[in-house]
Amino acid sequence: MKKIKIHNKNFKLFISHEKILSAVEKIADSLNEKLKGKQPLFICILNGSFMFAADLFKRMESVEAEISFVKLASYKGDKTTGEVKQLIGLSQNIEGRTVVVLEDIVDSGITIENIQEQLRQLNPREVIIATLLLKPDALIKKVQLDYVGMEIPNDFIVGYGLDYDGQGRNLADIFSIINE
Ligand code: IMP
Ligand code: MG
């Protein structure tokens, strides 16, 4: 079993890059079907979602798609702070548009609820939420997720864009914390 150390914590291999990509492909297939004939705007939630967004977006072959980025932060170290800080906002006009929000992971649901509420006020035609990962046992908000790549246990993870205090985003696989 492949193990790594980031800062003071140990992690073990949890989801291989291959498995991640097959989850991304499944979401991409469904979205290509669902978005045919539309001109959606994808919104990637930075920082964590940049790898998921890149892998998904290049698979949007049957859609005239655009992408934009917002930057939100709610995690400090390996825990949620319970509040969302907006670090970069949305510059596009989304009125009447189909918007697809791309999130790396839904944990408490606070981030997704926050962005959904912000987008609603800008009168889009529809808002579709796609998340690579979901921790169902950590959810404290009632959020409607349209596409979920994989459900995972409520353990802290890093890799494929996800970090522990800034480190680990560059890992191609996803690693799960070893509770010692
Ligand atoms: P939420 O607002 O609690 O749903 O958390 C969402 C954000 O927290 C995600 O977009 C991630 O950036 C971050 N996050 C949640 N769980 C983890 C984790 O296990 N590792 C690293 N970041 C996480
Ligand atoms: Mg995120």
TrEMBL record:
It is found in: Cytoplasm. GO terms for molecular function: guanine phosphoribosyltransferase activity; hypoxanthine phosphoribosyltransferase activity; magnesium ion binding; nucleotide binding. Pathway: Purine metabolism; IMP biosynthesis via salvage pathway; IMP from hypoxanthine: step 1/1. Residues 17-164 form the Phosphoribosyltransferase domain. GO terms for biological process: GMP salvage; guanine salvage; hypoxanthine metabolic process; IMP salvage; purine ribonucleoside salvage. It catalyses: IMP + diphosphate = hypoxanthine + 5-phospho-alpha-D-ribose 1-diphosphate; GMP + diphosphate = guanine + 5-phospho-alpha-D-ribose 1-diphosphate. It comes from the Bacteria. InterPro entries: HGPRT (IPR050408), Hxn_phspho_trans (IPR005904), PRTase-like (IPR029057), PRTase_dom (IPR000836). Its cofactor is Mg(2+). GO terms for cellular component: cytosol. The keyword Lyase does not apply. Keywords: Cytoplasm, Glycosyltransferase, Magnesium, Metal-binding, Nucleotide-binding, Purine salvage, Transferase. CDD domains: PRTases_typeI. Its main location: cytoplasm. Its EC number is 2.4.2.8. Coiled coil: none annotated. NCBIfam families: HGPRTase. Belongs to the purine/pyrimidine phosphoribosyltransferase family. This is Hypoxanthine phosphoribosyltransferase. The gene is hpt.
